[in-house]
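notes to self, project folder thing:

trying the whole complex as one job this time. last attempt i did each chain seperately and stitching them together was a nightmare. two parts in total, labels are on each line so i dont mix them up again. if this works i'll redo the older ones the same way
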Amino acid sequence: MPVLEILEYPDERLKQVSTPVEHFDADFQRFVDDLEETRLAGPGAVGIAAPQVGRFQRVVIVDVSKMRKPVSNHGHLVLVNPEITDWDGHAMGREGCLSVPDYTGNVIRAERIHLSAQDRHGAPIEFDMEGFEARAVQHEIDHLDGRLFLDRVVSRRSDVFRRKVYKKS
Amino acid sequence: MNDWIMLTVVGADRPGIVAALTERLFEAGAHLGEASMMRLGSSFTIMLMVKSEAPPGTLAGLLEPLARDMNLRIHVDPVEGGLHRHLEPDVRITVHGADRVGIVARVTGTLAEAGLNILDLESDVGGSVAHPIYIMVIEGQARHGIRALEQVVEPLRREGIEVVVHAVDTLIG
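result (full assembly):
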């Protein structure tokens, strides 16, 4: 299985919106394997999206099950045509990207999401996710819509006054 | 050859300082690197990495008219270093409490002993004139682990300083 070439910002193709996967054929299965191989070759990437390797189809891989400090997770996930159908809360966390070397920044994401998708063979799947796993899925789905975390970076100052503080008033 | 310069600029805040300064540097053929610019009190402050073929003295001379026009204090210092040398923080510490003398020394001294290397610190004084509050956000590396930091902040909490240690797990995706 080959490691695919990662597109790096400011490559215009990273802004392209990906199209739904319709054929779960042998070619697609091979691609998913190559995409996983590419993720594992990266420096500690917990996720990867097809457009990062120049294939503009709605498929991402997320796996936060091997973190040094364990987090809530659903194991190794291949998510085809994923859609976030509900979300709740927000939290700030630090993100980087295989497509944006030597830069990390703080990004606000939903804390909990409900996700509908298909597995790599086309069967429908659904998950309730939270925390780091929910963040990873949101980061990868952004790629499918031509968006990078750079579009969402905020100053750390935004984190100082948490919602708890606002509620006092 | 390392020809990076750290440019320090301080002056009464007004619109247009950044635009005027960077335009002058652009005309001088200088490249800009990483920067921190913000309003502190009623001053505007700039720390800016500049790479220039002109020697520091020449660059200072080029900026002299701007300093005069906008009433800015400008320092030009050659520095070691360069781009692409980021260190990744693995901890964020938020601190707040009633403002009082020595709070920064108390908190940062305690954290330094427990292995904290500060990469970035922002602090502010809010509240009212009668009851000022101090707020600080630190990002850094916990060289002896996050547990070590959590343990030493406990006594600070008993002194009425709210200190929260958050692990920062950078997501790469």
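what i see at first glance: Chain A touches chain B through 30 residues (CB under 8 Å).
need to look closer tmrw
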